[in-house]
Amino acid sequence: MNRHEARKKALQILFSLDINDMQPIHEMEHLDEHVKKDAFLNMLVNGVVHYKAEIDAMISAKLKNWSLDRIASVEKAILRIAVYEMQYVDDIPISVSINEAIELANTFGDEQSGKFINGVLSRINE
């Protein structure tokens, strides 16, 4: 699985965790064996879960006229993945993390999601 596919799968897992209030281990049990063994996917999911409070604080600090609770679960999961990569993964350029997040938002969100994600991540990157 390439990193783009791993991000898509991580988005699905983190979205499910967010709306169902589940632990990552329970969600990961339902995956195919080759997906379970993907190191990048596991790093993303476990990293976002581990640093969720810090990531949410970073996102909340850069929101304008929004609160984290008002953000749709899809966009929230995308932001969490991107912020995790930007803050805690050294071998991924920040521009790649932002571009991947915008692409995920354009694919899985509504017509304004990409612009919203770009705006928030750009403020975090300042």
List keywords for this structure.
126 residues, mainly alpha, N-utilizing Substance Protein B Homolog, Chain A, 8 helices, 74% helix, transcription, RNA-binding
Task: Give a concise summary.
With 126 residues, the protein is mainly α. Helix content is 74%, strand content 0%.
Describe the structure.
Involved in transcription antitermination. Required for transcription of ribosomal RNA (rRNA) genes. Binds specifically to the boxA antiterminator sequence of the ribosomal RNA (rrn) operons. Keywords: RNA-binding, Transcription, Transcription antitermination, Transcription regulation. One of its GO terms (biological process) is DNA-templated transcription termination. With 126 residues, the protein is an all-alpha fold. The protein has a single domain (3-125), classed as Orthogonal Bundle (N-utilizing Substance Protein B Homolog, Chain A). Helix content is 74%, strand content 0%. It has helices at residues 3-20, 24-28, 33-36, 39-50, 52-62, 73-88, 94-108, 113-124. The longest helix is centred in the N-terminal third of the chain and has 18 residues, at 3-20. The mean pLDDT is 88.
